[in-house]
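Section 3.1: Structural characterization of target chains.
Under the original work plan, the team committed to producing a structural model for every single-chain target entering the pipeline before any wet-lab resources were allocated. The record below documents one such target. The sequence was received from the expression subgroup and is listed exactly as submitted; it comprises 568 residues.
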Amino acid sequence: MNQATLHEEGRPQLRVVDSPPPGSSKGTADPGTSAESAVMEGQDTASAREPSQQVSEVQGDRDEGALAPAKRPRLGEEAQGPCGDLHPPDLHRDAPAQADVEQEQQRTGAPPDAKDSGDDVETTMGGGTEEEQHCQQNADGGPDGEMQTEEEKLHESADSPNEGRHLALDFSQTPQVLTSAWSEYANFSENYLKGCKWAPDGSCILSNSADNVLRVYNLPPEIYTSNWDVLPEMSPVLRMAEGDTIYDYCWYPKMNSLEPHSCFFASSSRDNPIHVWDAFYGEVRASFRPYNHLDELTAAHSLCFSPDGSQLYCGFDKTVRVFHTERPGRDCEERPTTAKKQSGQSGIISCLGFSPCQSLYACGSYSRCAGLYSCRDGTPLALLPARHRGGLTHLLFSPDGYYLYTGGRKDPEILCWDIREPGQVVFSLKRNVATNQRIYFDLDPSGRYLLSGGTEGVVSVWDCQGPAGGEEVLQPQLSFQAHWDCTNGISIHPFMPLVATSSGQRQFLWPGDGEGDSSSSSSDAEGGDEAATSSGANRVDNGLSLWWGGPCGPPADERCDEVSNMQS
């Protein structure tokens, strides 16, 4: 799609901030180059209500014809990819050399023109089923073998705990904070955060806050050097403003910074369409516009891309709507979670999650229950009992797909369900959740450790491989004070021992803290009632922090040596 489509009348032109941090490439501009941006195919350019542009943080006018280049290498090495990508495979490699093709033909015994003629080599050799033949053909360097092999290598190197570039989490001691971001959230007192999420390739972090602005932070390049003594405060490289309260947001699961067209995420806000944001330029790529039975625009309360990224699942009241990623607009498939005169899952679908190993997804609702559904047509598979005290706010599958973790608002328990025996709680995890705020939790890539914050700012770490069942209460292996205020968001890096946490919550004035009562507050404090007047102010902690949860040792020796070795 040409550039004119992007700048069509009515589409907001959000701009990147000036002065990005060293080593960052998102949000930078290269003057003198023509503008070019990847837009999703089939985009319906009209939108009902586009996001507000009343955010003063969005600075720096982009000159007409300026182009923000693709991600540059972080450490000045051409072979290095996103987030110091440790020499990832080149997904844009040319076709294999002729010598390799001839060698492959000799090994498989195929005629020289077998691939060109479209003959099924494995069928000639007496291969198995069509699916097996296709898999074997890819493994042997068939028509799709090159891309398939590279994708598998990238996936395994990024996600597999057994790969050399992966550093396992180590909670034998308290994680150490590396750097934080707090100045961004000091523009007004209640600009608290509402969660944070690592990008699938680990190159950056996405945060949400009460000012309805989504911010992208690049992973500090100093992480890949030996200079860990003083890390500067993180600054966002992109700010994207929504028009109202942000309900949910999620990354495109196939996001890879080496492929700019794959770098985007979706967000949903009150009284606005679902927006797809470009993670390089901070602009709206596309909009999905759900309407209710009165043909009124309605907002999704939860979002989740399918594992292959081809569909976007959106949660509504007793309904899940499925949009096709390549066809923005209003066309969608509706999948009710309850039927007339029949039992089902009622309430607003507040959270969604996909099984990594099976063709099913889970829906959590404010009716305090969770349901399992088929990805093919949304057929209900199981409805878990309402064991939570409050509405569900977050759920997560284990990496092996056998267990489902659910947590609710004003509910101190995270429950672990065995989906092979629906309704059976394996164990529960106790945390402090005293408000309606969404408190996230996360699992490490191996599925062993589960981390969650709480209302008092404490982060707890549980080893989930120990219990054998019986609905026992699993005690945390480690707890530490991450923030002075509520730790509402937590996200574990895809392949490094890094943990991101976000903090803050809505504060209420204590007696005597109102305007015009400063004199009385001072006198009360002097009289010894200091806790009642100042404790609320002392607990304000709105920020985003990065924690090192890897091997022991001071920042400048063992840990840096291990991280540096990952680059070679």
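The longest strand covers residues 176-181.
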